[in-house]
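Supplementary notes (optional reading)

For those who missed the lab, this is the record we used. Protein: COMM domain-containing protein 1. Length: 199 residues.
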Amino acid sequence: MANLAGSALAREGRMDPDSSRPRGVTQGAHRLHEASRKQRGRREEEVERGPGKRRGADMTWQAARRAPVESIASADMDFNQLEAFLTAQTKKQGGITSDQAAVISKFWKSHKTKIRESLMNQSRWDSGLRGLSWRIDGKSQSRHSAQIHTPVAIMELEIGKSGQESEFLCLEFDEVKVNQLLKKLSEVEESISTLMQPA
């Protein structure tokens, strides 16, 4: 039955007369063989050149293409800045081509928000303060009887990393420690204000 079907396909020109496979399968196998032979030839050339030369060339090419994207991301460029930057890169010796600039521009416009979020998440390597609550209590126990019933501040800090469960830290401050904390926070505030002043 298979031979009858094969001879019918051969008569219609859809069967390779030299084998029992349909013509498309034979042509596909031939193309695959040719591609494999060409790839083998390229590999042999790479072996003759040495792996270091090829890898070095690939790394140089990747670094040259990655540098503009890293600059765009670190500067968080808007679209006008992006176009000016890419135009300058295309005019630079050894820079990018206009086609590459178009691809980078389209990529940045499509993925700017995701890239920014990713960079922000990567820059937060430690836990952050998610919440703070406090209350004033009277001390009920102490080694010294004079400290019993003195007011203390109970502060609960909610700390956690992005995407993870929070941890809670409970601190107890007497009047002296509250004053020390306020002094340090005042110093932090002054430092931040100084850094935020325009130059």
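If you only remember one thing from this example: The longest strand covers residues 128-138.
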